[in-house]
Structure formats: C-alpha cells, structure tokens
Amino acid sequence: MIHRAAVLKDRTWALNGKVIRWSDKANYQPGGYTQVWNSLKPHFDRVQQTMAIVTLKTGTSSADLISDDGKSEFYERRERRDLCTEEIKATLDLLWAGSAAVEKRKRLLVTERIFGIKSKEAVAALSLDKLGRGLKILQAFEKRMRADKAVLDKGEFDVLSQLDIDIRQYDEGKAEEAELPF
Q1: pLDDT per residue over 42-96, tens digit each?
Q2: 38 and 89 both lie in a single domain
Q3: Which has fewest Cβ within 10 Å: 23, 58, 92, 169?
C-alpha cells in the first residue's frame, strides 16, 4: 500500500502542487517517521524562516467580526434582513387582512409603490437599507391610518395617495423617526 498526499496549496509555497508518496509499514519502528518528515520538512523550514515576521496583536479585527454570542456580522445582518422582511409582511397583513382579491391587490400595490417590486421573494432579496426604509415608511403609514381607518377601506387611489405622503416625508427627512423592533 502507498500513502499519497496531494498538496493543493501551501502557505509557504514550498510544497504547492506536489504529490508526496510514502510506503506503508507493517508496524512502527523507531525512526519510521523519517521518510514522512523528510517529505514535509521543506514546509516547516520555510515556516521557521518567517517566524520572526509573524506576530499576533491583541485587539485584532477578529473581535469585531464575531460578537460575544458567536454570531458573525454577516449572520447578524442576514438575521436583521429576515426580521425586516417578516415585519413588512406582518404589517401588510395587519393593514389588509384576508385573502380576497381586493386585499391582495392592495398589498401588492403598496409593496410596489414602496419598493418598486411586487413579489415577496424580490422584497426578501433587497438590501437591509432598502428594507429598513420601506419598513419605516410602512410603519409611519400604519400609525397615521390608525387615526383614519376609513382610508384603508377606500379605493386603491386613496390608499396610494396617502402612502405617497409617508414616502415623501421619509425621503425628505421630515418623517418621524420610527424605531425598528430589533
């Protein structure tokens, strides 16, 4: 039997692309590792040459990349995106509950007006910034509609014109700053 190691990538480049083979032994004999060691030694020699250069500093960026609970920045952003998406869906469902064509159409029109797209899947793929903007606009709209629930039952034109007020106020920086729930 022949043991074979194909080195695809070596940080020292000493063994890059090499295929190393060792013959099998029936049992271990003192010094039996010599063949393996001699094959790998160029890597360790090169590592030793760079040891004076390599230093680890405390307070590296790794502390910033992973929080105390073990979640990476990527994971936390993805989690916030998922929560934004769910909050948007829940708010739309709360404003226009039901599965009748009228409610579905209003949800689609409102989604298109805020985000420029219609499908839930496309909304879920948006950046966190776009989702946050849309959620804040939707929350401002919802807050105003609590005072005037009759608008929600009116036609599409009335709903969209009221929504345009919140979009304009948000984009002009005049909207009341809503806190995201996460």
Answers
A1: 888 887 776 655 455 655 555 555 556 666 788 888 888 899 999 999 999 988 8
A2: no
A3: 58
Question: Residue 122's domain spans which residues?
Answer: 71-171
Picking from 10, 17, 85, 86, the residue whose alpha carbon sits closest to that of residue 45 is 10
Inter-CA distances, 140 with 28, 29, 175, 182, Å: 75, 78, 8, 17
Where are the alpha helices (H) located in the chain, listed in sequence order? Answer: 34-50, 62-65, 73-95, 101-115, 120-124, 128-147, 150-153, 156-171
pTM of the predicted model over 0.70: no
Q: Is residue 35 part of a domain?
A: yes
Q: Looking at residue 181, what is its pLDDT? A: 55
